[in-house]
Design goal:
Layout lengths: L5 H5 L10 E7 L8 H7 E4 L4 E10 L2 E11 L2 E6 L6 H13 L16 E8 L5 E16 L14 E5 L2 E6 L1
Antiparallel strand pairs: 1-6, 2-5, 3-4, 5-8, 6-7, 7-8, 7-9
Length: 173
């Protein structure tokens, strides 16, 4: 194959950019419903869901070939938020956490199927039109870190959260 020319490169469509995306919380437990509209604007970073194709070797009479196994989902999504003085992010974490395990009682507020949600990550083009969509099913709060207070920096509070999920679908939006 010939080396690309400048004309070839100019004929490519716009480059997909890492800062053009949306986080949509399509469904969440009822206890955190009030905060979901505020989460997209406060979300600074996100990982992209992935699935790994497992393989195994078949060895027959000196020949070795690789065969497909099962697809394993990464099952975690990491998000970083910027907190505001109204404590929206902290309230979101606390509400979801308390729905899963009420402090001092150990009782869940809802059955497990009502503690899970559905998230949608959309990659956007330069006109902010969705070009690719990841739809995560069975999303549940797994872990979060609200950071630390530090008198030597002027940075904002940036809590990070890890959500577990069962699987995802992805494709062109």
């Amino acid at each position: 194959m010939a080396r690309p020319t400048i004309t070839d490169i100019r004929s490519l469509p716009d480059v997909a950019q890492v800062y053009r995306w949306n986080l949509l919380m399509a469904s969440v437990p009822t206890s955190v419903q009030a905060q979901i509209n505020a989460m997209n604007i406060r979300c600074e970073t996100t990982t992209i869901p992935k699935a790994t194709n497992q393989t195994f070797d078949v060895n027959i009479r000196g020949h070795q070939v690789v065969q497909n196994g099962i697809v394993v989902y990464d099952k975690t999504l990491s998000l970083t938020f910027i907190e505001t003085v109204d404590n929206t992010i902290h309230n979101f974490f606390k509400s979801w956490r308390e729905a899963i395990w009420k402090t001092r009682t150990g009782v869940a507020a809802f059955p497990t199927n009502q503690l899970k949600g559905e998230f949608i990550l959309e990659r956007l083009n330069n006109q902010d039109i969705p070009i690719w969509r990841y739809q995560l099913h069975g999303v549940m709060l797994q872990d979060y870190d609200v950071g630390s207070l530090d008198g030597t920096t002027s940075d904002g509070i940036k809590p990070s959260v890890i959500f577990a999920y069962d699987y995802f679908d992805d494709g062109a939006a």
